[in-house]
Design a protein that fits this description.
heterodimer, A: mainly alpha, MetI-like fold, 13 helices, B: alpha+beta, Rossmann fold, OB fold (Dihydrolipoamide Acetyltransferase, E2P), 2 domains, six-stranded mixed beta sheet, five-stranded antiparallel beta sheet, 21 strands, 23% helix, nucleotide-binding (chain B), ABC_transpr_MalK-like (chain B), ATP-binding (chain B)
Chain lengths: 276, 362
């Protein structure tokens, strides 16, 4: 009896230790960033690091005064535009791919997947030339469209997998009830697929919010996103660590909020009871 | 009045022709059961009536109107799927009234109709539940309710009982029959279960390999099967079928012999009738009899005591034979017994398996 209890204590201790290490591994950089954002420029780079200091919040006020709000606005516009476009185009495409059969659908599915196989560098230069040609360089819409080329195939593939798991009997029952294809999608499929729509939304938003390379190449001044703006602060002459840290901390907030809202729709077991 | 008429319907999937020219009529208010082994095309025919599949050729009429190309939503058909196909995110009431919602019926009227139908199906307590919170039988009733709500021209049932347990299946079977009497709408019901077909149908349409083999009332098919397939498909336990050879013929009387048996004398419809090649006897026309009175001797393999009767399975030189005996009959595996037939009610088949003799209604 005692042996059993002892074993269980060691087991939970071991588990606690492992989890602590794992959690601190993830959280330490964020903690470091948070501490750095409330230090002075010299204090942030002091060796050994200071753990007891007078917090200084001026870096956060400088986000407003030094024009970072524009980057936040741009990032938000790009990410939300991308989410909306991905959904508006991806949902009907995925639905059509699962409910219509034939050679065209098969080939189309593979073609979509193959877009994901191409390295990013293969699309950047053509996109740059294209956007320069139509005068979209350094605009949020250019970055959003560039992101769309990557997020749309991914979203379609995720949705195809999910839509396929929804029994086709439901579509047919709705068709017999007098629904059009679009109404089937709207009334039956989308409400059932809400968890997957939320997941896709989160993934697409976070991708767009964090994406650096495309945003860096396709923008120069007016449409800089937060990651690009942060990177451009790491200049050769000065290195404003508290400001970089403060922007990074604040940049987590919209993504966290978006995930928080979207996550509430991810409830399992919604599909239960449709068909036995 | 003819409610639904199919005219030489054909359908292929790729190179495989699954429906090979099916024609059939259902009268207004008739309960028609399509029955056949799995893969015979019965569900495909039902789905073509619903408009969920298009026939390659042939026509579908509802009344006098051609409906072959009318989309499913405009056919005013209520269909109950094998899987129920309830919308999981909607309440029972919403599930039942989607068709009304799509037709633009106001919410209060929809609710009223849902309550009306729910009362009929004893679902009134469950109107606000989600399908996941219902038992299999309740889900089945919601699916039926959804079909009733829109007051359809005809009901289509696609194996609606196959997901239910045995007791519930009998209960639901009776309920569907009762419903049919109550609302008197044409119903077309697909099943592979011959018991469902026998108990529910006004008329059975027996299908095999994409073709109608025979149609008629359950008793017509049971008593006068057109061929061996119909004879063995309907009836439980199955008809005993034994290979025979005619040893002598005198006009319409033939002496038949079978492996390990004395002769059996049968009457043929006319002197020109071909010689029977097999004989079929239903278990209820088969008896375990005292030695000397029977036709064949055999060994009992098992005796199933069902309470109301005993099914005696016997191995004979001519093959396995099942006899239906009274409940007090005592039989033990391994016993040697004699098997006798009520030859007057035997079915005779020619070399192609077609029935030679017909029985008058008895």
């Amino acid at each position: 009896m005692s042996g059993y209890a002892g074993q269980s204590i060691w087991k939970s201790l071991g588990r606690a230790a492992f989890l602590s290490v794992a959690v601190s591994f993830v959280l330490f950089p964020i903690l470091w960033l948070a501490l750095g954002s409330v230090k002075t420029r010299n204090g942030a780079l002091a060796v050994p690091p200071e753990f007891i200091f007078q917090p200084d919040f001026t870096a956060y006020t400088r986000i407003f005064t030094q024009g970072f709000l524009g980057s936040f606005q741009t990032s938000l516009t790009i990410a939300l535009t991308n989410v909306v476009l991905t959904m508006v185009l991806g949902v009907p495409a995925a639905y059509a791919l699962t409910r219509m059969t034939g050679k065209v659908q098969e080939n189309l599915s593979f073609w979509l997947l193959s877009v994901r196989m191409a390295p990013l560098f293969a699309v950047i230069i053509p996109l740059y030339v294209l956007f320069r040609g139509i005068g979209l360089l350094d605009t949020p819409i250019a970055v959003a469209l560039a992101h769309l080329t990557l997020t749309l195939p991914m979203a379609i593939w995720m949705l195809v997998t999910y839509f396929r798991s929804i029994p086709i009997d439901l579509d047919q029952a709705a068709l017999l009830d007098g629904a059009t294809r679009l109404q089937v999608l709207w009334i039956v499929i989308l409400p059932i697929a809400r968890p997957m729509l939320a997941s896709v939304g989160i993934i697409v938003f976070i991708f767009s919010w964090n994406e650096f390379l495309l945003a860096f190449i396709l923008t120069s001044r007016d449409a800089q996103t937060v990651p690009v703006a942060v990177a451009s602060m790491a200049g050769t002459m000065s290195f404003d660590w508290p400001l970089i840290a403060a922007v990074s901390i604040v940049s987590m907030i919209p993504a966290l909020l978006f995930v928080g809202v979207a996550q509430r729709h991810i409830v399992s077991g919604l599909g239960a009871g449709a068909v036995k | 009045m003819v409610a639904i008429r199919l005219q030489d319907i054909r359908k292929s999937y790729g190179p495989v022709e699954v429906i090979k020219g099916v024609s059939f009529e259902a009268e207004q208010g008739e309960f028609v059961v399509f029955v056949g082994p799995s893969g015979c095309g019965k569900s495909t025919i039902l789905r073509m009536i619903a408009g969920l599949e298009k026939p390659d050729s042939g026509e579908i009429y509802f009344g006098d109107d051609r409906y072959t190309d009318v989309p499913p939503g405009k056919r005013e058909i209520g269909m109950v799927f094998q899987s129920y196909a309830l919308y999981p995110h909607m309440s029972v009431a919403d599930n039942m009234t989607v068709s009304l919602r799509l037709a633009g019926v106001p919410k209060t009227d929809r609710r009223k109709r849902a309550v009306e139908v729910a009362r009929m199906l004893k679902l009134d307590e469950l109107l606000d539940r989600k399908p996941a919170e219902l038992s299999g039988g309740q889900r089945q009733r919601v699916a039926i309710g959804r079909a009733i709500v829109r007051d359809p021209k005809a009901f289509l049932f696609d194996e609606p009982l196959s997901n239910l347990d045995a007791a519930l299946r009998v209960e639901t079977r009776l309920e569907i029959s009762r419903l049919h009497q109550q609302i008197n709408t044409t119903m077309i019901y697909v099943t592979h279960d011959q018991t469902e077909a026998m108990t529910m149908a006004d008329r059975i349409v027996l299908l095999d390999a994409g073709q109608v083999v025979q149609q008629g009332t359950p008793l017509e098919l049971y008593r006068n099967p057109a061929n061996l397939f119909v004879a063995t498909f309907l009836g439980s336990p199955k008809m005993n079928v034994l290979d025979v050879a005619a040893v002598s013929r005198d006009g319409t009387t033939a002496q038949l012999t079978m492996a390990g048996a004395s002769h059996v004398s049968v009457t043929l419809p006319s002197p020109e009738t071909a010689d029977p090649k097999s004989i079929g006897v239903r278990p209820e026309d088969t008896r375990i009899v005292p030695e000397g009175e029977g036709v064949l001797s055999g060994t009992i393999i098992s005796a199933e005591h069902l309470g109301s009767e005993v099914l005696v399975h016997t191995e004979t030189a001519a093959g396995q034979i099942i006899a239906k005996m009274p409940p007090d009959f005592s039989a033990h595996a391994g016993d040697t017994v004699w098997v006798g037939f009520n030859v007057a009610r035997a079915h005779l088949f020619d070399a192609d398996g077609l029935t030679i003799n017909n029985h008058a209604r008895q």
